[in-house]
Specification:
alpha+beta; 329 residues; single chain; binds molybdenum atom; 13 strands; globular; binds the ligand Nc1nc2c(c(=O)[nH]1)N[C@H]1C(S)=C(S)[C@@H](COP(=O)(O)O)O[C@H]1N2; eight-stranded mixed sheet; five-stranded mixed sheet; Sulfite Oxidase, Chain A, domain 2
Length: 329
């Protein structure tokens, strides 16, 4: 067992919730920013090895005021961390609908059409509703700086923009039979060449228990670094769950259903022995093919120790009381 002081588990300096309206991300501004951002995207992926180099100072238009100082002598155990650069976040991605090559996603996704876009919310709800993306971009957007830990063993620190999923779910009013939430990514093989690979059970599906979905840390993200999401990071809207392995944070969502039974995710369907429903970050439970004890923070030279619940245990551990977390995922 890793020994961590409670003070180290509370990621006060990382989990920053600024309940502030980001004026630059109103619906109209966001749509036009998105268009210009898309057309500016460079097809050149960062060369492999670039992640080992020192992160360049980034413009951090909104974030610089709340950037936590990196503690002196930052070691493998501390939570203090610099934000991953915007460049790295936008050029090292996991998005199988485009390609399995992380440094190639940005290029393949460059012309992905994210407007017009609708998110259909239904299932066991009183008010099923189709949200236009402009309505969702018009919600107050908060900035949340979260650590992200991919199940493959790499991690980042990302300043997201978004709003709690709970806000959207409250609008549609889940019925009493609703126990889980099921999310679905767009299925469009013409735009997403990876979907022509029939080895994968498209579309990408993920699921949460309703209490996980309603938790304040659970974000529907529309941007990062003060800018609308680019296609490679899940534009125009994606989930962000900082205490779970990255694959739970489903991108480019078109459907959300409240359901009675636990949804089967794409990864559970494909490799049930390797990926489970909860997928809470847990350094003590190894993946069948590799250890989960440490992680490679993009932009850093040495590995860090991975923390239970990715360091968010104080906020979320109560959701799993009585469950055997040593059980596979
Ligand atoms: N639809 C969809 N969502 C997805 C994925 C994907 O392949 N398709 N990859 C997941 C995985 S494994 C990770 S680690 C994160 C990566 O997010 P990022 O590229 O913004 O860092 O997205 C998740 N969401
Ligand atoms: Mo991942």
């Amino acid at each position: 067992m890793t020994k961590i002081k409670p003070s180290e588990i509370t990621p006060q300096h990382i989990y920053v919730s600024r309940r502030k309206f980001i004026a630059g991300v109103s619906a109209v501004a966001a749509s036009s920013l998105l268009l210009s951002a898309c057309s500016k995207t460079s097809p050149s992926p960062i060369p492999s090895g670039a992640e080992g180099t020192a992160p360049a100072p980034s413009p951090a238009p909104l974030g610089s005021q709340i950037l936590a100082p990196t503690p002196a002598g930052a070691g493998i155990d501390d939570l203090g961390a610099k934000w991953t650069t915007e460049k790295a976040i936008n050029s090292y991605n996991n998005f199988y609908e485009f390609t399995v090559a992380k440094e190639g996603v940005a290029g393949f996704a460059q012309r992905f059409k994210t407007s017009p876009w609708e998110v259909e919310v239904g299932g066991l709800v009183r008010n099923p509703r189709t949200f236009d993306i402009d309505d969702l971009l018009n919600y107050d957007q908060e900035e949340r700086v979260y650590r992200m830990r991919c199940v493959e063993g790499w991690s980042m620190v990302i300043p997201w923009l978004g709003f709690p999923l709970a806000k959207l779910l409250q609008e549609v009013e889940p019925l009493s039979g609703a126990q889980y939430v099921r999310f679905e990514t767009l299925y469009d093989p013409e735009q997403m060449p990876g979907q022509e690979n029939s080895r994968y059970p498209w579309p990408y599906v993920e699921g949460l228990r309703l209490d996980e979905a309603m938790h304040d840390l659970t974000l529907l993200s529309t941007g990062l670094y003060g800018q609308p999401l680019l296609p490679q990071t899940g534009a125009p809207i994606r989930l962000v769950l900082p205490w779970k392995y990255g694959f739970k944070s489903i991108k480019s969502i078109v459907r959300i259903d409240l359901v009675e039974e636990a949804p089967v995710s794409l990864w559970m369907d494909l490799a049930p022995r390797e990926y489970g429903f909860f997928a809470n970050v847990n350094p003590d439970v190894d993946h069948p093919r590799w250890s989960q004890a440490t992680e490679r923070r993009i932009g850093e030279g040495t590995r860090r120790r991975t923390l239970p619940f990715n360091g968010y245990g104080e906020q979320v551990a109560h959701l799993y009381q009585g469950m055997d977390l040593s059980q596979w995922y």
